[in-house]
C-alpha cells in the first residue's frame, strides 16, 4: 500500500505531466492535487526537494524498464532501440518534458551516474562489455534526441538519427 508521500507524489506527477511545472508555486501545485503547501513542505522539504523526487520517480521507472527490456533484447542495438521507441512514444513525451523541466530547475546533478550504473549491470547481464565513455555518450545522445523530439515534434527524424548512432556505435 502506498504511503501518503508516494500518493501525493503520484498525484503531483500526473498534474505536472499534464500542466507543467515551470513557474508554479508549491501552493499552486498543492491546490491542483487537493493538498496544501504545508504537506508538500512536510514530505519534500522544498520545491527543489519536490522536483528532485519527481525526477527520481520518473528516472527510476525508466531504469527499471531498461532492465526489463534487457531480459528480452536480442543484443545491445535491439535494447537501445526498444528503449528509444518506448521513451520517444507520444504518451511518454509529457514525462520527458517534465524530466527536462526538472533538470532546468535543479541543474541536473546526479542524473547520469545512476544510468551508468544500471547500464553496466545490464551489459553484464546480457554478456557484453561496454566502455564507460561509450555508455555516457549513449545517455547524452538519447537525451539530446529527446530534446529534439520535444522541440520539433518529429520523432521520426530523431529515430533515424538514433538508428544511425547505434549503427556507428557498432553494438
Can you walk me through this structure?
The chain has 171 residues and is mainly alpha-helical. Helix content is 77%, strand content 0%. The protein has 9 helices and no strands. It has helices at residues 4-19, 26-32, 37-44, 47-70, 76-87, 93-106, 113-126, 132-152, 155-169. Helix 3 packs across helix 4, helix 7 packs across helix 8 (132-152) and helix 8 (132-152) runs antiparallel to helix 9. The radius of gyration is 17 Å and the shape is elongated. The termini are far apart. The mean pLDDT is 90.
Which class do the helix and strand fractions yield? mainly alpha
Can you count the helices? 9
By DSSP, the count of extended strands is: 0
Gross morphology is elongated
Radius of gyration: 17 Å
> Helix and strand string, N-terminal first?
HHHHHHHHH
Query: What is the percentage of strand-forming residues?
Result: under 5%
Topology record:
Blueprint: H1 4-19, H2 26-32, H3 37-44, H4 47-70, H5 76-87, H6 93-106, H7 113-126, H8 132-152, H9 155-169
Helix pairs in contact: 2-3, 3-4, 4-5, 4-6, 4-7, 5-9, 7-8, 8-9
In short:
The chain has 171 residues and is an all-alpha fold. The chain contains 9 helices and no strands.
